[in-house]
Amino acid sequence: MSDSSPSQQQPRRPVGDTARSNPQGAAPTGDASLDRGTGRLDSDRPDQKAGRPTGAAESSITSNGSAPDSSTALARSERTAATVAELDSAVVVLGGRVVLRRVSAEVEEGEVVAVLGANGSGKSTLVRALVGLVPLRDGEARLYGRPLPRFKEWRRIGYVPQRTTAAAGVPATVREVVTSGRLSYTGVLGRLGKNDRIAIDDALATVGVSDRARDSVARLSGGQQQRVLIARALAARPDLLILDEPMAGVDLANQRALADTLAALHADGTTILLVLHELGPLAPLIDRAIVLRDGRVVHDGAPPPAIGYHADPAHDHVHPHAPAEEPGWLR
Amino acid sequence: MAALSLGVVAATFHPAGTALPEFLQPAFMQRAVVAAILVGLAAPAIGIYLVQRRMALMGDGIGHVALLGVALGLLLHASPVWTAVVVATLGAIAIEVVRARGAASGDVALALLFYGGIAGGVVLIGLSDSGSNANLLSYLFGSLTTVAPGDLVTIAILTLAVLAVTVGLSRALFAVCQDEEYARVAGLPVRALNLLLAISAAVTVTVAMQVVGVLLISALMVVPVATAQQVTRGFRATLWLAILLGVAYAVSGVTFSYYADTASGASIVLLAIAGFALVTILTAVVRRGRAPETEIYEDEVAVGLAEGQA
What we know:
The complex is a heterodimer of chains A (331) and B (310). Chain A has 331 residues and is of the alpha/beta class. Chain A has helices spanning 32-35, 58-64, 71-76, 123-130, 174-179, 183-186, 194-206, 222-234, 252-267, and strands spanning 83-94, 97-108, 112-117, 138-143, 146-147, 157-160, 240-244, 271-275, 288-293, 296-301. In chain A, 23% of the residues lie in helices and 19% in strands. In chain A, strand 9 (288-293) and strand 10 (296-301) form a beta hairpin. The radius of gyration of chain A is 20 Å and the shape is globular. In chain B, helix 3 (27-52) runs antiparallel to helix 11 and helix 8 packs antiparallel against helix 11 (190-208). Chain B has 310 residues and is mostly helical. The interface between A and B is large, with 54 and 47 residues.
């Protein structure tokens, strides 16, 4: 048991891990303008980011990292943070329904940001748009200053999709699932090297499933399967970890274990963006909350205190994908 | 043939004067057995990904479309194997496009494709010079005598290609079939890998169609995997065991079919299902004899971990 404590995993990152040495992605100034479709009407953007230049000038902001005219970002970041993930007036339409209505949001390096909201508010879609899993009807998503179609450093992103199980139709061991996380390093044809194996061992240990590595994932509890999915993301030693409802279907003991894992990663410098239904055991960790309602950002700042039913950490919170609206989550 | 069918096992181990067992003496049986080994290798190797993705019946759909390709070959006096490869590949790509879009009307589109393929195949085989009912039946359910000498080289090359993809790219294909969204965010060329998988499935169908038949090929893709996964915990172990079972089923099915004078594909599939039933019963018996699994242990780990880190 003691070998699963995250504190013993540090330092997680070997010195030779070059992918993280270049947080700005060295995007040449001006290349963002090449990616923009010609159809966008800049005039119909709302002034959520007053004074923010559009078009060609955008890249100079995102690629030098300090966003001089984004006063909110400056006020928030005393650690001279760079914007690692950013949605800019994003519009997402799924199945004829507008899910995101000109959502702008960003995540600074080193932050822990929670996306909150009722079911159907668009919080999951927000992170899915950010990693390119749902297309934008309008607006732009950027990772490390790069507009999404041109972003190539996927190994810097650790994505944990919303899943109730890590299993598929054929058995797979915990280690096999976590090994998938190294594909962004080895490529489709490459072989696993020593560094890959060390990274996989580290990821398994960080989430505390080393002793189950050779077991079939299907035989693990829901909380343990969730940890396996996080280990898969960690195997690439990402700079930015994005988790979509990691607490759904996870018992309280496992929720606390997950919170400890994320705290250790945060202390280690990993930026964390997570979609949550409520803060729960993660509350002390969250720097900032983005609250969505009906596809719009209604709050971006300090995490709101939980109220009423949802304040009770023991309440039943297992409702992934439920389409029903839950009015009054935040009044 | 009736006398021969009395002693399947006895005759197998009765060399009848030469080094080869009796059933391997006719040249057509040598070709059938070699083809069966190749089919037994390729079918589970591709089938495991279809099962993993819960699309076990995709091979069946491709098989329906492949019959149209066979018919075109017979009609045009071309090699039915190659025309089937082309038509089945086009069909598999169409299936993959429908799957990737995930449209609600996808089911209906696939039904049109599958039944259009098999109906077109039956009509065209009827129109062709060599179009007899026996010919049609041998392509539907497999036959020992359809493997022509020239086909064997084709089948061997295609099998090697399928194995190169399914074993050589197994880590990437595993990741895509396990969790396609994760694979996309990891930067894998998901669309290309999906297409490669669909094309490999189509090629496997055409490799297998002479010995197993287009209507039964899906069983040889799926049943060895379903059998293997009852006793395995990991993907790699399942893959290798399924391939081993696939070869065993295919060769013994062909041998049985020679002595019993039955359609080879049907014999292979019945043997595979018998194997599946046997393994299911055996694992149930073994599980019952064992102590209950590790549920309590899991909770202890979770609580202990939380406390240890608090």
